[in-house]
């Protein structure tokens, strides 16, 4: 559950989701179960700025674009700043699916574009007893994040994304349809990949999503984050 590193190219945002986000959604591991001690600890949220027009509000499965700074509550030292990474571009990630630490998934619910929040996250909803040495976070650290949200979009598990891959409109995704989508996305992002990467990703998507093993990913199997009507 560290922070996502890449953002999709701007030209992609109008149409669907970048390959990266589709794959993150389709390949996402189930969230780890948290320890029982977490029940008493909650994320504290302080709203620093709320725009007059506050919609849409973020919900689980949405694709968010935000900047955030992270501080250790113990001494106020900054351990993370999204503005100093990736040429200063805000981060893209899917809310509520474990792409960021659990405390941030909770802290950024019901937030609207333009809103700023200061949130305090207990260790049980951050990096726990282990800490995160690579990120300079000691064991049992309470974290403070200052977050500015820029955009709330339909996420990779939205009806729109499903319908875009489902070319024949039969409400299920075949291997051919997903294969075609991967080809288009690979071509769009222009990175050189070994041909076997396509087959491995395709196989993994079906392994993780085709629960009844009928060779198709049904609307129900695909739509795990948002139970919209398809």
TrEMBL record:
One of the record's GO molecular function terms: peptidyl-prolyl cis-trans isomerase activity
SUPFAM superfamilies documented for this protein: EF-hand, FKBP-like
Top EC group: isomerase
Name of the gene: Fkbp7
Pfam families tied to this protein: EF-hand_7 (PF13499), FKBP_C (PF00254)
EC identifiers of the protein: 5.2.1.8
Domain EF-hand as annotated: residue spans: 153-188, 197-230
Name this protein carries in UniProt: peptidylprolyl isomerase
InterPro entries: EF-hand-dom_pair, EF_Hand_1_Ca_BS, EF_hand_dom, PPIase_dom_sf, PPIase_FKBP, PPIase_FKBP_dom
Signal peptide: 1-33
GO CC annotation, single: endoplasmic reticulum
Record field: catalytic activity: [protein]-peptidylproline (omega=180) = [protein]-peptidylproline (omega=0)
Keywords noted in UniProt: Calcium, Endoplasmic reticulum, Glycoprotein, Isomerase, Metal-binding, Repeat, Rotamase, Signal
Residues covered by the PPIase FKBP-type domain: 61-153
């Amino acid at each position: 559950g560290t922070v996502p590193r890449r953002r999709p190219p701007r030209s992609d945002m109008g149409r669907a989701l970048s390959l990266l986000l589709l794959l993150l959604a389709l390949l996402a591991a189930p969230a780890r179960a948290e320890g029982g001690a977490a029940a008493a600890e909650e994320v504290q949220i302080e709203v620093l700025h709320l725009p007059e027009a506050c919609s849409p509000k973020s919900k689980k499965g949405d694709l968010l674009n935000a900047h955030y700074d992270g501080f250790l509550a113990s001494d106020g030292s900054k351990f993370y700043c999204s503005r100093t990474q990736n040429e200063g571009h805000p981060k893209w990630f899917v809310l509520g699916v474990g792409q960021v630490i659990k405390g941030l998934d909770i802290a950024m619910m019901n937030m609207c574009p333009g809103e700023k929040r200061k949130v305090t996250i207990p260790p049980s909803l951050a990096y726990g007893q282990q800490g995160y040495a690579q990120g300079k976070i000691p064991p049992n650290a309470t974290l403070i994040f200052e977050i500015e949200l820029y955009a709330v979009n339909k996420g990779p598990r939205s009806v729109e994304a499903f319908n875009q891959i489902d070319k024949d409109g039969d409400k299920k995704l075949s291997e051919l349809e997903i294969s075609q989508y991967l080809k288009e996305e690979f071509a769009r992002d222009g990175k050189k990949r070994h041909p076997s990467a396509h087959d491995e990703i395709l196989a993994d998507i079906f392994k993780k999503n085709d629960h009844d093993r009928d060779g198709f990913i049904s609307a129900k199997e695909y739509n795990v984050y948002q139970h919209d009507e398809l």
